[in-house]
C-alpha cells in the first residue's frame, strides 16, 4: 500500500513509500482509508518532541485520525462488519492514517455520522475526542458555567466552541479579526481580538480554560479562573501528576516536576488546578459525538482538502497557522 512516512525524527519532507499491508488482530478491523486530517500532534511526533511519552520504530507512517470503510474484520470483532463506514482515532501505538489502509482496534472507532462526507468525518475524531475529554471529563463543566477556549478559529477551537455551546456553557474565545465572524457563527458569546486585547485584562471569574497554545499564554490563563477552577492544556508541558498517572517512572516524573515548577507555583497561588491532556481513543465517545453531529448541534469546519500526494504541502499549510478549521487529506 502507499503511505506517507518518515525514516527518522525531524525529517521533512514526508516520503511517499510502499509499505506492507497491516496485519489484522483478532479484535481489529482493516479499513480502507478515504480521508485523514492534519493535527499538531503529527508535527510533534515527526519532530521527536513526544519521545518521552511515545516510542516508535522507523520508518513511521504519520497520521492520527481518519474515516473509511471496513474491508476485513478480526475473528473476535463483535460491533462491526465488512462494508461499515467508520471514523476513528487509532490508539497511539497503532497510528498511521496517512496511508491507504489501517488496522485499528474496534474500541477505537465508531460508525461515521450519517450526515457527513468522508472528508467531513475525518476532520472530527482527534479534535472531537480532545475537546470532549477536556470539557466533559476533566473540566467537568455544566450548563451555565463559563469557559475560555483559546484559538477559537483553529481546528480544535471550531469544534470545542460548538461542543461547549451544545453543553449549555458560556464561551469566550480568542481570535483575530479575520476569524471573528467564524467563531461568532459557531456560537461564541465573547470574542477577544488577541492582536489588540489581552484576554487576562478582559475576562474574570471563569470556571475553566481550555488552552491550545501553551507557554506564556497558558500561564496568564490562571489569573482569569476562580479559585477551585481548572485549566486544561493540550499544548503546555505535562506535569509530575500526569507523569505518575502515565507511569513514566521516578526520573521522568521528577524531570516533569522540575520543568513545570512555574505552573505548580501558579496552581498554589491561584488555587486553580492544572491538567495536561493526552487524549485517549474512545469509540464510545465518538458515538456520543456522532449524536451531536447528526442532531445538527455540531458541524465540521474545513479549511482545505488536499490530495494524498500533497501531504507535505498540507503539513506546511497547517504549520503556517493560517487555517480556519481543519485541513484534510483525501486519500481515496
Automatic annotation (TrEMBL):
Ranges for domain Enoyl reductase (ER): 10-329
Organism of this sequence: Paenibacillus borealis
InterPro entries listed in its UniProt record: ADH-like_N, ER, GroES-like_sf, NAD(P)-bd_dom_sf, Quin_OxRdtase/zeta-crystal_CS, YIM1/Zinc_Alcohol_DH_Fams
Protein name: NADPH:quinone reductase
Keyword Oxidoreductase: yes
Keywords carried by this UniProt record: Oxidoreductase
GO molecular function: oxidoreductase activity; zinc ion binding
Lineage: Bacteria, Bacillati, Bacillota, Bacilli, Bacillales
PROSITE patterns listed in its UniProt record: QOR_ZETA_CRYSTAL
PANTHER family listed in its UniProt record: ALCOHOL DEHYDROGENASE RELATED, RETICULON-4-INTERACTING PROTEIN 1, MITOCHONDRIAL
Amino acid at each position: 500500500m502507499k503511505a506517507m512516512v518518515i525514516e527518522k525524527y525531524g525529517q521533512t519532507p514526508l516520503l511517499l513509500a510502499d509499505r506492507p499491508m497491516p496485519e489484522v488482530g483478532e479484535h481489529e478491523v482493516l479499513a480502507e482509508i478515504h480521508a485523514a486530517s492534519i493535527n499538531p500532534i503529527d508535527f510533534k511526533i515527526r519532530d521527536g518532541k513526544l519521545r518521552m511519552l511515545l516510542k516508535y520504530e522507523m520508518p513511521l507512517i504519520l497520521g492520527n485520525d481518519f474515516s473509511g470503510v471496513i474491508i476485513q474484520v478480526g475473528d473476535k470483532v463483535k460491533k462491526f462488519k465488512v462494508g461499515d463506514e467508520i471514523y476513528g482515532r487509532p490508539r497511539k501505538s497503532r497510528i498511521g492514517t496517512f496511508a491507504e489502509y489501517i488496522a485499528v482496534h474496534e474500541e477505537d472507532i465508531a460508525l461515521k455520522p450519517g450526515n457527513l462526507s468522508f472528508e467531513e468525518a475525518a476532520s472530527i475524531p482527534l479534535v472531537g475526542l480532545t475537546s470532549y475529554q477536556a470539557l466533559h471529563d476533566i473540566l467537568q463543566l455544566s450548563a451555565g458555567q463559563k469557559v475560555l477556549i483559546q484559538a477559537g478559529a483553529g481546528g480544535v477551537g471550531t469544534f470545542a466552541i460548538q461542543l461547549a455551546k451544545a453543553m449549555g456553557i458560556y464561551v469566550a474565545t480568542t481570535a483575530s479579526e479575520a476569524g471573528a465572524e467564524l467563531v461568532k457563527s459557531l456560537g461564541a458569546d465573547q470574542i477577544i481580538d488577541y492582536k489588540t486585547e489581552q484576554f487576562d485584562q478582559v475576562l474574570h471569574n471563569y470556571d475553566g480554560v481550555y488552552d491550545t497554545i501553551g507557554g506564556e499564554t497558558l500561564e496568564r490563563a490562571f489569573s482569569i479562573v476562580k479559585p477551585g477552577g481548572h485549566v486544561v492544556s493540550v499544548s503546555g508541558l505535562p506535569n509530575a501528576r500526569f507523569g505518575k498517572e502515565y507511569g513514566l517512572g521516578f526520573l521522568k516524573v521528577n524531570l516533569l516536576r522540575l520543568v513545570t515548577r512555574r505552573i505548580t507555583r501558579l496552581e498554589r497561588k491561584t488555587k486553580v488546578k492544572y491538567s495536561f491532556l493526552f487524549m485517549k481513543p474512545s469509540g464510545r465517545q465518538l458515538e456520543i459525538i456522532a449524536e451531536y453531529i447528526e442532531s445538527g448541534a455540531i458541524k465540521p469546519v474545513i479549511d482545505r482538502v488536499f490530495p494524498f500526494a500533497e501531504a507535505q504541502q498540507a503539513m506546511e499549510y497547517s504549520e503556517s497557522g493560517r487555517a480556519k478549521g481543519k485541513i484534510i487529506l483525501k486519500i481515496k
